[in-house]
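To whoever is on call:

I kicked off a structure prediction for a single chain this morning and the downstream step that reads the tokens threw a length-mismatch warning. I double-checked the sequence; it's 318 residues and nothing unusual in it as far as I can see. Pasting both halves so you can look.
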Amino acid sequence: MSTIRVAAVQAEPVWFNVAGTTEKTITLIAQAAAEGAELVAFPETWLPGYPLFLWGMGVAEQLPLIANYHANSVEVSGPEMAAIRDAAREHGIGVVLGFSEKDHGSLYIAQALIDSSGELVQHRRKPKPTHVERTLFGEGDGSGLAVVELAGATVGALNCWEHMQPLLKFTMYAQHEQIHVASWPAFGEGLPQLSAEASLALSRAYALEGGAFVLVSNHVATQLPGMTGGGVARVYGPDGSLLTEPIPGDVEGIVYADIDLSAISLAKTFADPVGHYSRPDVFQLTVDRMSRRPAVLTPAAPSVEPIAEESEILIVGS
């Protein structure tokens, strides 16, 4: 029996400070690798921290925070991502990283899947930001709804309430995902559907429905007003079983599990939503995974020399 050691991070970013959080990311990658992990999962918008201010402040109050958030968001080709990729390569570990992606004037809730050689094998954006997130983040397209080979398994990732969308989840199930990273922010008190309990129910249901191992990673928040913890990192098996001991919600740490991929086949003998427990003759899902751009620019036309005005031609003969 071969196993894969996986890790899910429960930690607090250096809030809205991309340099500080990048440094902490590299430290956590090294820590997970030192414990033998082959894959480590980070929370939603870990870089530079989830913008919790969207949920509790008026627009005018948010403006200075939004400006700072833009300034501390990450470009895919930027130095922060390069440093994290270098850390993955140095420590020989796969990384699934949640980050606020800056693309010129727009931000996106994004995830990067990096293999143990430091290669960025998947970059995806959340197709529909949730509720007030839409005031800050743009929408991704279907091109990010894919799984990749990582740490010897087929791995996919989603953020937060993407786990609330049945068709989006089914798209991932249909690609025979073996390990799924469920990235979440910190959880506080408030509406029931935004609670830790509800989010863990969605994560566990994902494991049961998809027959996959699910790594739940999220923030701890103790340095923000009104927040006292909110961490819930854990790993679920493909039968929905809890494979890790939870860390207290206000404590930083990493949970580890040694998983055997053969358990997936056993779980799917009971229910395989894209196999024997499906009805493709009745239901069929079509997913557009084309990458979309706001403008398709053809190559610029070559410059043309101006044509001289017509003039009289003198032919001189002998």
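Update from on-call: the warning came from a stale cache, not from the record. Cleared it. Sanity check on the structure: The chain has one domain: 4-268.
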